[in-house]
Design goal:
Elements: H1 2-12, E1 16-20, H2 33-43, E2 46-50, E3 54-55, E4 58-59, H3 62-70, H4 74-81, E5 86-92, H5 97-100, E6 106-108, E7 121-129, E8 132-143, E9 148-157, E10 168-178
Parallel strand pairs: 1-2
Antiparallel strand pairs: 3-4, 5-6, 5-10, 6-9, 7-8, 7-10, 8-9
Helix pairs in contact: 3-4
Length: 187
């Protein structure tokens, strides 16, 4: 815990640390509230502890939220987060298939592999960018109809939207509509 606190002090000029009531860091989670308060008193930063928060009678926790997202229970994750689960990423060129079949889409750069994504499938989504927003449908995962096994994130904006290549877009997951499917043809 002390090594991590020193990292925070030197890299980020730590002045105040806000932690959850059951927070632990370091080997064996040995850096608990008491240890961090002792370090704060010695090294000149304050420690504020946030009490337990419950939602629907259940303790809100990052572990519960991660499990809900990984399991596709985005409604439970949203209740715990107080907002929809989201990703912000730049719009990148795709294969141009959507435009060719009459459904213009945007492709988002895949996030760092450490970013937890819900199960692959088709989702109702909300997309926001610097000067606008739109509802849409998003396909996340491989594209078996086209023989493409690579994971992608591709969204169709209901109202078309402007040219967003190179711009950052915030995508918020809504309801999962279906799993990834292979169709006999693009049509």
């Amino acid at each position: 815990p002390e090594a991590f606190v020193h990292l925070l002090l030197t890299r980020y000029q730590l002045r105040e640390l806000v932690i959850g009531f059951d927070h632990g860091l370091g080997q064996g989670r040995s850096g608990d509230v008491r240890v961090l308060r002792d370090l704060g008193a010695r090294l000149g930063f304050s420690v504020d502890v946030v009490g337990e928060v419950t939602v629907d009678g259940r303790a809100a926790s990052s572990t519960f939220i991660r499990r809900a997202i990984a399991g596709g229970d985005l409604a439970a994750a949203e209740r715990m987060l107080g907002r929809p689960y989201s990703l912000t990423a730049p719009v990148v060129p795709g294969a141009g298939r959507g435009r060719r079949i009459g459904y213009r889409t945007i492709n988002l750069a895949l996030p760092d592999p450490r970013k937890l994504l819900p199960p692959d499938g088709v989702y109702a989504v909300r997309l926001e960018w610097a000067h606008g927003a739109s509802g849409g449908m998003m396909h996340q995962g491989p594209r078996p109809t086209f023989g493409d096994a690579q994971r992608s994130i591709e969204a169709h904006l209901f109202d078309g939207g402007p040219d967003l290549y190179g711009h950052e877009v915030k995508l918020s997951w809504g309801a999962r509509l279906r799993a990834v499917s292979a169709f006999p043809s693009p049509q």
